[in-house]
Every structure is written in structure tokens, then in C-alpha cells.
Amino acid sequence: MRTSSAARQPPARPQPLVEVLTILDCPNRDGAISLAERVCDHLDSAAEVRVIDIADQPAAEQARFLGSPTIRVDGRDIEPGAERHEEYVHACRLYQVGHSLRGLPDEDWLRQALRTAEARP
Question: Which residue segments constitute the domains of the chain, with CATH numbers given?
Fold first, then answer.
């Protein structure tokens, strides 16, 4: 008995989820969304990009929100070492990138996070 080609294919891996968490008046909101979409396109990733607006301080605490914008891949903040932070705020976020502070995370952090997520079984 022959099996169909669909039956012989390995099970599909779930696509990564890229979350862009922001506050509505964040000056870097649109830039963070564009960054996420651009990196996903550049890597030909099947990742879903989801924008989540954090409404207030209680929502920031519940979401473990480190400030706006925050980008997570499969629930993990893309900034190296971010898991050590425990202050959750409904405010803007700055990133130490090289020797300067920036309003957006480093593009390479997102690339690495996506590659890692896509390599997981």
C-alpha cells in the first residue's frame, strides 16, 4: 500500500512568533514594527509578527514589559541579558548598543533570536 506524499513529510514546525510590545505614544513604535517585519522578510522567515499595545502600568507588570518598544521571539526578549531585568514599566525603553543608547534594539539581536527559534525542534 502506498502512502501519500503528505503522510511521508515530517510534521511542520510551528512558526516563530515575533511580538512587538509598545505603548501607543512611543516614538519608536513604528520603527520597531518595521524592524520586525524587515528582518523577517530578509530572512525569509515564516514568523508571525504580532503588535501588542500595553495600556498601563498594571498591564506592563502582567506582561513583564521592560519598556517600549520590546521585541520578543517566542516569548523571549531579544536583548541579551534582558531576563535579568525585573523592573516592569509603562514607559519608553532605551537599548545599549555598542557605545550608545538607542530607541530600537540591535537588528542582529532579532536575526539571532529568529535563527535560534527556527532551529528548535
Answer: 15-119 (3.40.30.10)
Q: Are residues 17 and 36 in contact, defined by beta-carbon separation less than 8 angstroms? A: no
User: What single string gives the DSSP state of each residue in 67-106?
Assistant: SBSEEEETTEESSTTGGG-----SSB--EEETTEEESS--
Instruction: Give the amino acid at 23.
Output: I
Give the number of other Cβ atoms within 10 Å of residue 57's Cβ: 13
Which tens digit of pLDDT belongs to each residue from 6-49?
Answer: 555 555 557 899 999 999 999 999 999 999 999 999 999 889 99
User: Does the predicted TM-score (pTM) go above 0.70?
Assistant: yes
Reduced 3-state DSSP string for 5-70: HHHHCCCCCCCCEEEEEECCCCCCHHHHHHHHHHHHHHCCCCCEEEEEECCCHHHHHHHCCCCECE
- Chain centroid to CA 17: how far? 7
